[in-house]
Amino acid sequence: MPVWLLPAVALVAVAAVGIILLLPRSPGGQVAWARFRTQDVHSLAFVGVDAQHVLFGHHGGLLESRDGGRAWAALPIRDDAMSMAPADDGSIVIAGHEVFTASRDGGATWSTIPADLPSLDIHGFTRDPADPARMWAYLAIGGLWESTDFGVHWSEVRADSVLFPLAVRDGAETKLLGVDASGLVASSDGGRSWTALMTPPTYPMTSLSATPDGQTIYAGANDGLFRSGDGGRSWSPTGYQGSVFAIATTPDGATVAVVSRDTEFFRSIDGGSTWPGP
Fold first, then answer.
1. CATH number of the domain at 3-268, please?
2. Domain ranges across the chain
3. Closest CA to 141 of 125, 118, 164
4. Is 0.85 surpassed by the pTM of this model?
């Protein structure tokens, strides 16, 4: 190598090390891929089976990443995305404070869903993996409601509240997961009756995510991320330490992402064991 190139090579090496060292690192050792600096943290989802396509919802709309979470851009929606549910048919529904809006073209255009709910202050929302037109909403005024026609008409299926409602497909039937006063619960009849599951060893839970078949479940809290690989019958801590305000997992359960209270985005490709930077 020519002697005159050595200073340039050394400068590039120092710059590369500097970039690595400047990546945000949490007390647990995980390295953040991005920091959103939004006012709040609401929702997170992978789109279909593409582990590189991620959506993040906050009070001012949706951010989208096509490279696994390295770079993010705002979608043309500025409504409160407290809950967000993309489907395989290309549709995305967001629900929040006086918000119930859908895109049928992957987020390019949006329109309000004319729902007959008693309130549009929606604090929890989910869609059937087998039928995107079937959905459930938990309202701030209380109660869990079900729709089978893409959110136009609704009926109450439970008077009491169920936090973090989450629809999964267990074989030939759709099940609901959620959290109530007793802990983690499940329903096999559309939310009308519920049975208790083993609750993660943390309180309170701040977020919930699961694979479409419901076998792998992730539960977030202020003190870390917990994982069940048997449908909620047993739990173990992951390698993530810190607050978890939003979770998403790919359909195989291997790739999991979280957003912390400080709006930092973290990602693991081994079921939560390790959390390296990009």
1. 2.130.10.10
2. 3-268
3. 118
4. yes
